Amino acid sequence: xxxxxxxxxxxxxxxxxxxxxxxxxxxxxxxxxxxxxxxxxxxxxxxxxxxxxxxxxxxxxxxxxxxxxxxxxxxxxxxxxxxxxxxxxxxxxxxxxxxxxxxxxxxxxxxxxxxxxxxxxxxxxxxxxxxxxxxxxxxxxxxxxxxxxxxxxxxxxxxxxxxxxxxxxxxx
Length: 172
Description:
Shape: elongated
Radius of gyration: 23 Å
Distance between the termini: 20 Å
Oligomer: single chain
Strand content: under 5%
Largest sheet: none
Helix content: over 70%
Order of helices and strands: HHHHH
């Protein structure tokens, strides 16, 4: 009975960690593709400007991840990870909406540049989230991977002891 629980808990932990790391890698790849596309369409000078806006966003993303993980350090690690993942999705979505609004409200070429620059900042923030989370996960930081609390460990041990005594009583 306890082995089924342990297997399902290990599987869910693996899946959540794996999925969050995979999604963060996808965000990094998306940022690299964005820079390559801008470079091929507009040239190196514009790509460097886009890279500057992405760098500004990355700084904000790094701060957001560190602050979020420190604030939620008293809870389980999965809660802070979920906040970061959902925040990345919300930031990407809001960045797209704001970029489209700017594109259609500002006339001429300035609207196109506002679209590119606001997309760059939004993508930079999510890339900062991804990069920071991946670095913390790679070095197995306590902010990302926390050990079980002592109370939870004690209750698990007590449950296992109770199960073992029940098994021994049934055998007799």
